Structure of Nardilysin-like:
Amino acid sequence: MPQTSKSSGAGAASPASAPDQGEPPPPEGARAQVAAGDGEEGATVDDQGDPEIVKSPSDPKRYRYIELSNGLRALLISDFSGADGEGGNGESAEQEEEQEEEEGGEEDEGDSGEGSEEEEGDRAEEEQDSDFEELEEENPVKKKKSSEKQAAAALCIGVGSFSDPDELPGLAHFLEHMVFMGSEKYPAENGFDAFLKKHGGSDNASTDCERTIFQFDVQRKHFRDALDRWAQFFICPLMIEDAVDREVEAVDSEFQLARPSDSHRKEMLFGSLAKPGHPMSKFCWGNAQTLKHEPREKQINSYERLRDFWRRYYSAQYMTLTVQSKETLDTLEEWVREIFIRVPNNGEPRPDFSHLQQPFDTPAFNKLYRVVPVRKVHALTISWAVPPQGKHYRVKPLHYISWLIGHEGTGSILSLLRKKYEYMLTHTQKCVVHFVFQYLKMLQTLGPQQRIYEEIQKIEANEFHYQEQTDPIEFVENICENMQLFPKQDFLTGDQLMFKYDPQVINAALSLLKPDRANLLLLSPENEGCCLLKEKWFGTCYSVEDIPEEWAERWAGDFELNPELHLPAENKFIATDFTLKTSDCPDTEYPLETVSSYIRFHLISPMIQKSPENLVLFDLFVNILAHNLAEPAYEADVAQLEYKLVAGEHGLMIRLKGFNHKLPLLLHLIVDKLADFSTEPSVFTMFSEQLKKTYFNILIKPDRLGKDIRLQILEHCRWSVIQKYRAVSKGLTVDDLMTFVRGLKAELYAEGLVQGNFTSAVRHTHTDFLTSRYQVYPTCRNTSGVLGFSVTVETQATKFSSEFVEAKIEEFLVSFGECLSGLSDEAFGTQVTALIKLKECEDAHLGEEVDRNWFEVVTQQYVFDRLNKEVTLMLLHLHVTLPTSTHPST
Ligand SMILES: [Zn+2]
């Protein structure tokens, strides 16, 4: 679906788990599981939240639902946490804005819907390379935005591209752009964006089939002002003719950007299969052709039609609004009523598509489509059309079914595919389809399983119960859409919780997923040349044929079940004991972190550094161990227990995070797999090849190679990546690996850190400048006891020679030295004060403190109160300017 991507930040992805279209179901009674209500400390008698809205016990925010007399429905969210979110003085606000500007410099990727797919290769590679020795100082990767929360608002209109007039495809999307071009009250064309930019905010919008969502965030002290400016787009947008012509170009370029995306192409191709006249087949993107050139030829006044569409559909009774800020509920209510009461209500009924529920009840569906992809990928999509399931949101039958189909543990489709890997290379498509149908047939034969349903239910409930606070702009975006779909009490839970096991409802959906109702879509570069059809808008080349008779016959009637496919066994990793809950510290700022624990082990062995061969074997060992764990540890993964194995310089690091209760079970599993380590020759070969590629990629990346050489100079004994690359290239065997592993296990020394308490952690910032051409960053380091200050410069080799760069760095060091010696005591004091502030700063994540402590363990320094010591020392320096120290001495 088209999405605007104006400001950096806010990636407007629609929530995947939202139920399908359909009217909000009627409210039901009995609410189980989750604690209801408000009644939090800090709520004054006058500032009541709404006890009917079911929220997570770990959610400190307060909620109130109101309906304005114009029909607009709003959810007010107050997240005042007791601490002053403003940072106290003007100084911090300035810093904040500076930071924003830096961040603004980085371009967003635009709205390609499949960035993740494309980046995957790179990321897997990053994962494998894992140096840990300079945990704190290294890693010039930019940290997330400051933890200081923004205020945010989102508005959802229950109208989307389905309402586009036939002669103006893309009009709803176009209007979503146009309303932002100034209002009667604030006429400047890009005034709102400029305002947000100045105050550290961002905004975005997206148009879906039956809904359009707008959202923004901004620094809290500017929220009232921003809200008023934003609301004018729904009250009195200017939409002047002049701007219309220009903005068509913006919509057109969004379409042009989307064109090379295989997922967008596939979506549009699916749309084209819908029954003739069904809105599903509309071209919702819009482009210059549909919004400008064709209307001109046909003498359609698209400017007038835009205003008509606004008057007809941007009406208060279709709107749901969510606002979140630190103000009291009473204040938020006052603001929302004052501002949004002016949104007009045209009294028209809501657009209704309920008579069009079966778009794919057509012969065009249930075929085999071959498609030529843009990227070199092979992908198979099996689809079934099922009736709208929105009214079953309390049961979520499709979630239950897709959970099982997507399962990765023993007995799953993926598990079988992994085993048949080699066979698969030749029999891909038919074989995969067959496994999926066999699995579904098994599910249909066995019927819905209460035990499995309850496991999923428990996992979702745990996640909701111990949820982490999300970014306000994402949160309000999600909730304002939920308000269109669920009754009031389920605004916060409707898209996540599984409320009720209902085998009949699950069976009804499950029984539809039969081979003879499936549509197959096969993406493959090999289809090139045999696809003579062309999709109208994206130009996707495809062909259509009947499902091959041989396949259809095999699936018809009673095709055999596969004995290797079976239901997942009971998940032993689901936490049920939460006795270490947070209720003892209700007034901390981030109370939810405490249900998570961290376990880390460092298994050190002198074997590893003995030779480059050993280092390579160690890397192979860790990668294969992770591979061996993938299946048995999948259950832990879905139960929100995270684990990671890292090949360090001197040992294996095992990091675990998750609910206390079952975390040790996961550790045992890992240790067992380590103790009984074994591997197949084919797996060994696959990982050897992969590792060779990884080393090679390090060798061709200047920053990685530079680091390797720097460390070689600093450390007594270090094998270079080139040596490792040579070692893996000359060929190692499974026997080599097993011999190495036996030696490793014989000489193992373990250190560990277990942490589950909540204390302050510090955030580290890095000076990092990123431009398209080169990277420059200075860092302070402590490498195996060698203190250092390094300046790293990366440029294109063809632009500057390394001698030239070197000279520039020397020049900088001289001038910086002069700058330092010329620094006044006062200026130096300011710097020290800022650094103290930084080191004293509490952070939102327990994980960062764990990282800090872990650094002490890994480097065997064990100075767990390092920050306090550093702060104390710095305060000593400042004793002249600061009269007394209030900091606890250590
Ligand atoms: Zn757009």
Summary: The pocket of zinc ion is lined by residues 2-4, 173, 177, 254 (CB under 6 Å). The chain has a mean pLDDT of 80.
